[in-house]
Amino acid sequence: MIYGITGNTQKEQLWKPVAELLRWLQQQGLQAKLHPAVAEGLTQRKLLNEAQVVAYTARDLATEVDIILSFGGDGTLLQSAHLAGRHGTPILGINIGRMGFLADVEVEHVREAISALERGDYTVEARMALEAELEQELPVELSWALNEFVIDRSGPAGLITIDVKVDGVPLNRYWADGLIFSTPTGSTAYSLSAGGPIVSPACEVIILTPIAPHTLTLRPIVLPASVTLETHVYTGGQPYVLAADGRSQLIAQEGQRITIRRAAHTVNLVKLPEQHYFRTLRTKLMWGAR
Question: 74 an active-site residue?
Fold first, then answer.
């Protein structure tokens, strides 16, 4: 296999395990391609000789590797997912962060993980994503999301009003700080912190979770993944924020239609035999611990 390696270059704990892994891969006769930022960091720190550090473009990582190894936390894995884009390149998350719902291979076990991959002892989970359309053109990085889309108030704005229709039928008018449109993968991210439910990624649904709603009767709702959601945002003339997996843009024109639906592509996550979603929940949320 050819491995693409990317990671959170803001974390100092990234460099040593990546350098050690590259030396080990070379000893095993396995090929790796480095994200340019990772290659630059290794070169600056002189952890490898120049012959061992070759940078490749993001396109190479998306299209010319078999698996992307994403060193970091869940935020880094989201960046890796957008790096892979719609090509569907499988991603294995190597956790050097804190929580690690998505990056669930601990960094000290990365060699064992590579050995399992080489044996073919793994599965690939296809995770649903969401896509958005706005009347004004959106940047590519905001056109789809693995975790969630968020409509949020900007700094100077107070409560905003968000009208939502489901397949053309009015659902609700939300008076709130914002509204989260989450996939099952994203149910353990921002949606969970705002009071949304935990949803197994095996389910195909869209979760709507209001952020600090003005009315206490407004609760999260789970909808089939087949629906098309149409929203209109009113802010009293103030700009508001549209975010996709943490990448955001200010929207100045209120009242325009934002359409959110299931994306045509999936994000493919590599899972090893000992990994299971429920085991991850028990471990990360300390369920059953005294």
Answer: yes
